[in-house]
Structure formats: C-alpha cells, structure tokens
Design a protein that fits this description.
This protein has twelve helices and no strands. Helix 5 packs antiparallel against helix 6 (137-155), helix 6 (137-155) runs antiparallel to helix 11 and helix 7 (160-173) runs parallel beside helix 11 (215-237). By secondary structure, the chain is mostly helical.
Length: 252
C-alpha cells in the first residue's frame, strides 16, 4: 500500500490531468475550436507569402474567377471557425441553421475549385508560358475528396461524432494549397504530408480523450493518403495517358 502522503499527491495530479485530457476536460471542450484557429493560421501563413505578388498586384492580372475562388475559400475557413465556436458556446440551433449555408458554400467550392484549376492551368500555359498540365491531378483530387467528405458530413449531420470528423478531414484537406505556398514543400511534394500531420491532430485528440481512434479516421485517413499519393504520381510521373488527357482538358 502506498504511503498516505504519496496517495494525497497522486490524487490531485490525476484529477488535474483528467481536467485537461479527460472527458469534459480542456482538450475535449476546446479541441475543435483550437483546430479551426490552427487551420486559419496555416492559411494566413501560406497565402500571405504569395497573395500580393500572384493576385493583388499580379502582372499580368489574374482571372476574376480566381478572386471569387479565394473569397469562397476564405469564407469556408471563417465558417469552420464560427461553427466550432457556436458548438463551444452551445448555440446548437444557430449552428444547424448556419450549416445549410455551409452546404451551399461547400458545393460552390467544389465547382469553383474544379473550374479554376482548368482556368489557371490554361492561364499558366498561355499567359505565363509555364505549362504544368499534369498538376491538374492535385486540385481535382482535392475537390473530389472535399466534396465527398462534406457530403458525408451532411448525410451524418444527426450524429455529431461522425459529422464533425468528416468536416475536420474535409477542411484539413484544403490546406495543401496553403502549404504549397512554401517553395520547399511544393518542390519536394511534401504539402500532402503536412496536411496529414494536421489531420493526425484529430487522431491525437481521440487517443487522449477517448483512449481510442474513431473509425472515421481509421478508414478515411488511409484512403486519403492513397488518393494523395496517386495525385502526386500522376503529377510528377505524368504518364502519357494522363498528360494527354490534361492537355486536352486545358486546350493546350
């Protein structure tokens, strides 16, 4: 039997630890809001490196559609933060009502993201004389994954444990655009690795709070990693059939 003095010390420490990582603790209550701020920070850090040179004061000027795409992307980040905050302050009814706006915005982003990938591919090839048609695999994968995950989040909106994890994965999946603004990460095709690292924060949360990894992460993250690697292969490897398909799509 442990001495009474040791038990007295161990009990407060265990209780304090439980208040941080246990059910109802700080991690449990604030993780999703914290993650939304991490996402926003990554987006700002990434795009602040290029937004002035390649959009605001770009020469030649970029297509207007790119501005709309940027506004929609930024709107989604704000939406993700707001929805996380509403859950934190228990404004569930407002959260659910605003969720339908998110569904519409998500559908717009899939359409815009796919179209702008083609528009900018043509722009890079014809205006900047920097063709990279095989790169279409990356934005096309992003939009397919994002649309699928948001769609699943809508279908399972009545089950918060599923709904929020689908949205976490969908939102994190968009971060390759921000990570790709760092030259080293882009040139070495490491932006998806960084995306996966952010997704793994959700896994860490589950292990700390629930002592197990949710099945959504167990199935979805490996599937996303496979898709990411396929996108990288099609881009960097540029097999003939894919390159010709992209050139035909871009009209170059």
């Amino acid at each position: 039997m442990a001495p009474a003095s040791q038990s007295a010390v161990a009990h407060p420490v265990s209780r304090r630890l439980s208040q941080i990582i246990g059910r109802g603790g700080l991690v449990d209550r604030y993780f999703y809001f914290f993650l939304s701020l991490v996402v926003a920070g990554i987006v700002v850090a990434g795009f602040s490196r290029t937004v002035d040179r390649f959009l605001i004061h770009a020469a030649p000027p970029r297509p207007v559609l790119l501005w709309i795409h940027g506004a929609a992307f930024s709107g989604w980040v704000v939406f993700f933060i707001l929805q996380s905050a509403l859950v934190r302050v228990r404004k569930v009814r407002v959260h659910r009502t605003l969720g339908w706006f998110g569904a519409v915005l998500g559908a717009m982003m899939v359409t815009l993201g796919s179209v702008i990938a083609v528009v900018m591919g043509r722009f890079d090839a014809l205006q900047l004389h920097q063709p990279d048609p095989a790169f279409l695999s990356v934005p096309f994968f992003d939009m397919a994954a994002f649309g699928t995950l948001v769609g699943l989040a809508i279908v399972w909106r009545g089950k918060p444990d599923l709904h929020r994890r689908f949205l976490v994965l969908a939102t994190c999946g968009l971060l390759d655009a921000a990570f790709g603004r760092f030259d080293y990460l882009f040139n070495h095709s490491l932006f998806f690795v960084c995306v996966d690292a952010v997704m793994l924060l959700g896994v860490a949360r589950d292990l700390l709070v629930d002592r197990r990894v949710h099945k959504i992460y167990l199935y979805a993250i490996p599937a996303l990693v496979i898709g990411q690697n396929l996108a990288i292969y099609l881009w960097r490897g540029a097999p003939g059939w894919w390159l010709s398909t992209c050139k035909e799509t871009l009209g170059v």
